[in-house]
C-alpha cells in the first residue's frame, strides 16, 4: 500500500498551516516532525521545521538538519555550533518563518517543561493559525493510561498557554513495534479524544505495518530516521 502524497496535500490544505507537536519524552515527536516535513515537501508544499525542544538534549530535530535541508526543507534551529548545547536558545528566523504564509510549518516541542518556551511566542502562533497536536505513545512513561495522558495534556496547556486541538496516536517500541501494540495505543488515545472532545488526527504506523492494519482512523506511515546508540550492531 502506497501513501498518497496528493491526498495528504489536499487534506493538509484544509488545516492550519502551523503544526505544533507536543508530548512527553519518548512519544516520537521528532521522528513524526521529520516525516511530516518530508511528506509536505515531496507533495509540493514549502515545508519548514522549527526545533523548539530546547530543554533536554535528547534526539532533537536539529540532528536531522542535513537530511531535511537536502530535501529542500527549511530548518529553524540554534546554530550548528550550539546544536548539542543544553541551553534554552530561541532559534533565529523563528518569527519570520512563523509569520510567512508560504511555509507549512512543523514545530517540534518537548513536554511541559519545554512547552514553557511556547509562552513567549504563543500570540504569534495564534495570529498565524496553528493546530496543537498531542503525540501519544502509551508504551512510554506518563502516557500509559487515559488519566495520565489527560494530565499530560493539562500540564502542557498550562505551561504553553495554548490549547491542544488534536491527538496523534503514535504508540511504538521502535523496531519491535507490533500491530497489537499499535491498536492498543489507538484504543487508549481514542478514549482520550472522546473524553476531551478532540479529533484524532492520525494513527501513525511504522512503514512495515502500513497497509496491514484496517481501521477507520486516518493513517500516516512513519519511516524511522533516528539512529539510536542501541541500534548499532557493529
Low-confidence stretches: 229-234
State the fourth-level CATH superfamily: P-loop containing nucleotide triphosphate hydrolases
Shape: globular
Number of extended strands: 8
Specify the number of helices: 8
Q: Can you tell me the CATH class?
A: Alpha Beta
Share of residues in strands: 15-25%
> What is the CATH architecture term?
3-Layer(aba) Sandwich
- What CATH calls the topology is Rossmann fold
Overall pLDDT level = 88
Number of domains: 1
Intertermini distance: 32 Å
Structural class: alpha/beta
**What's the gyration radius in Å?**
16 Å
Q: Strand arrangement, largest sheet?
A: 3-2-4-1-5-6-7-8
Note the quaternary state here: single chain
SSE sequence, one letter per element: HEHEHEHEHHEHEHEE
How is the biggest beta sheet arranged? 8 strands, parallel
The helix fraction, in percent, is 25-40%
Description:
The chain is of the alpha/beta class and 234 residues long. The protein has one domain: 3-Layer(aba) Sandwich (Rossmann fold), CATH 3.40.50.300. It contains eight helices and eight strands; from the N terminus they run αβαβαβαβααβαβαββ. An eight-stranded parallel β-sheet has the order 3-2-4-1-5-6-7-8, sandwiched between helices. It is globular.
Spell out the blueprint of helices and strands.
Elements: H1 5-12, E1 18-22, H2 29-42, E2 47-51, H3 65-70, E3 74-76, H4 94-99, E4 104-108, H5 112-115, H6 122-128, E5 130-136, H7 146-160, E6 166-169, H8 179-196, E7 200-206, E8 219-222
Parallel strand pairs: 1-4, 1-5, 2-3, 2-4, 5-6, 6-7, 7-8
Helix pairs in contact: 7-8
Amino acid at each position: 500500500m502506497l501513501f498518497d502524497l496528493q491526498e495528504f496535500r489536499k487534506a493538509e490544505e484544509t488545516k492550519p498551516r502551523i503544526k505544533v507537536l507536543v508530548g512527553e519524552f519518548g512519544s516520537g515527536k521528532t521522528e513524526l516532525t521529520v516525516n511530516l516535513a518530508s511528506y509536505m515537501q515531496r507533495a509540493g508544499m514549502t515545508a519548514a521545521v522549527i526545533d523548539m525542544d530546547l530543554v533536554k538534549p535528547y534526539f532533537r530535530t536539529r540532528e536531522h538538519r542535513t537530511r531535511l535541508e537536502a530535501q529542500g526543507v527549511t530548518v529553524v534551529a540554534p546554530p550548528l555550533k550550539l546544536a548539542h548545547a543544553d541551553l534554552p536558545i530561541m532559534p533565529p528566523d523563528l518569527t519570520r518563518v512563523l509569520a510567512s504564509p508560504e511555509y507549512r510549518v512543523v514545530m517540534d516541542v518537548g513536554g511541559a517543561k519545554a512547552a514553557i518556551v511556547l509562552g513567549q511566542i504563543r500570540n504569534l502562533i495564534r495570529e498565524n493559525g496553528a493546530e496543537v497536536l498531542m503525540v501519544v505513545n502509551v508504551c512510554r512513561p506518563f502516557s500509559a493510561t487515559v488519566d495520565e495522558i489527560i494530565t499530560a495534556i493539562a500540564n502542557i496547556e498550562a505551561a504553553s498557554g495554548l490549547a491542544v486541538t488534536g491527538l496523534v496516536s503514535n504508540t511504538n517500541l521502535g523496531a519491535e513495534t507490533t500491530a497489537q501494540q499499535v491498536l492498543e495505543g489507538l484504543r487508549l488515545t481514542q478514549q482520550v479524544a472522546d473524553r476531551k472532545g478532540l479529533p484524532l488526527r492520525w494513527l501513525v504506523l511504522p512503514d512495515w505495518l502500513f497497509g496491514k492494519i484496517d481501521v477507520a482512523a486516518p493513517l500516516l506511515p512513519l519511516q524511522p530516521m533516528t539512529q539510536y546508540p542501541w541500534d548499532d550492531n557493529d
